[in-house]
Amino acid sequence: MSETPTSPATLDPEVVLYLEHVRVEKRLAARTLTLYTLDLEKLAQFAASVNVPMLQLQTAHIRRFVAQMHSGGRSGRGIALILSGWRGFFIWAGRQGLIPHNPVQDVRAPKAPKPLPKALGVDDAVRLAEFDNTGADPWLEARDAAMVELLYGCGLRVGELAGLDAIPNADTQRQGRGWVDLQAGEAHVFGKGSKRRSVPVGAAATAALQAWLQLRATPFGGEGSARLDTALFVGQRGKRLTAQSIWLRLRQRSQQAGLTTPVHPHMLRHSFASHLLQSSGDLRAVQELLGHANITTTQVYTRLDFQHLAKVYDAAHPRARKKSP
């Protein structure tokens, strides 16, 4: 069925009255009024296709029209906007006593598919983690390298990373901050809802943290030590790094490492989860490490894993290769 709108002349008189009503009463902009008109012309066309007057349409008809639009490739967001226009017309018609009920009232647009989280390939993630900016300030280099190792190696959220204390004290846990126990090889963090979880810290992250801790207080010796915050990761003024600062440093570091995609902290968390799932296939373990309350949140990474497998299949399986023309 064609979706070409009918001409305004074919619209029912009630629709014309409604469009005049919204033009005068709501003082709609010309562009908005045009969109309202197009949506109602589309509804008139649908109604004509089932030989039912617009004011006699039922909810089943509307659902059928939604299905047709969706199968035709229209997005859920686009359908939602069209339904909003139709709903307004039928609300007005109900107030005028023209219909007994609104057929659009309980109809919802199809949910848009959730976009897959953006994750780095294994090679790019390792390239970023192993990047050594030899010409940089050793203090900044050690700090930024340790942050990358914790984000990718432990799957931390940026807020969890920023909230880590260098040396836990009596206030650390009470104030919902985390810490790293290098001897035990564990990071203790407080995630969403102030839920505490512990994640293992691998050898590479441990080595990077040890290198950073040896330099962390260097610029603040003597009288300057009073300016040094309790945070594990501090800026050049000795204060705790903000999440925004970590975003900026990571973006800059990924560019310096030659990655074509600007990297943000959550991308490293996604990479941690995706690469761990590819290797282990243990969805429950990944759920625990990420601190997801519901495993359905973690299951999105199975889609990433399937994409990875599909790419391997397309590249390697003889029956997947397209024959040259």
UniProtKB/TrEMBL annotation:
Keyword line: Cell cycle, Cell division, Chromosome partition, Cytoplasm, DNA integration, DNA recombination, DNA-binding
InterPro entries listed in its UniProt record: CB, DNA_brk_join_enz, Integrase-like_cat_sf, Integrase_catalytic, Integrase_recombinase_N, Integrase_SAM-like_N, Tyrosine_recombinase_XerC/XerD, Tyrosine_recombinase_XerCD
PROSITE patterns referenced in this protein's UniProt entry, alphabetically: CB, TYR_RECOMBINASE
Residue ranges occupied by any Tyr recombinase domain in the UniProt entry: 115-314
CDD domains: INT_XerDC_C (cd00798)
PANTHER family: PHAGE INTEGRASE-RELATED (PTHR30349), TYROSINE RECOMBINASE XERC (PTHR30349:SF81)
Known function: Site-specific tyrosine recombinase, which acts by catalyzing the cutting and rejoining of the recombining DNA molecules. The XerC-XerD complex is essential to convert dimers of the bacterial chromosome into monomers to permit their segregation at cell division. It also contributes to the segregational stability of plasmids.
Subunit: Forms a cyclic heterotetrameric complex composed of two molecules of XerC and two molecules of XerD.
Record protein name field: Tyrosine recombinase XerC
Native species: Acidovorax delafieldii
Lineage: Bacteria, Pseudomonadati, Pseudomonadota, Betaproteobacteria, Burkholderiales
Gene: xerC
